[in-house]
Amino acid sequence: MTNNINSVVWVSIFVSFLFIDFSQAPTHDTAKVVALEEYRTFISYEDQKLSNPQIIRYNDCNSHLFVYDTAESTVFEFDSNGDIVNTYGQRGRGPGEFFRSE
User: Fold this and answer.
1) Which regions of the chain does DSSP assign to beta strands (E)?
2) Where in the chain are the domains?
3) Phi, psi (5° rounding) for residue 3?
4) For site-directed labelling of 93, which of 2, 43, 72, 100 has its Cα 20 to 30 A away?
5) pLDDT tens, 31-58?
């Protein structure tokens, strides 16, 4: 009886994968590829402000860089000079807090 249930479960999982529409999968066609002309260090390792940066986004409108640090559970906003303009969030589960990044 247990083997029949296991078989039904596995067949159900397999069949469900057949009906997944992979044509709607997100693409990276919207990302703009640019050549790196120069680079500079905003925060060095010795500054100990960023512990584990995981997600980095650039705002082309105001030339600000947003870095999510999972160890600090904080988003750091840098201006074009490399100065921290603002920080968002802290560790927690409430409003304005990060428990885990997805």
Assistant:
1) 53-59, 64-69, 74-78, 84-88, 90-91, 97-98
2) 29-98
3) -65, -40
4) 43
5) 677 787 887 776 666 766 777 888 888 8
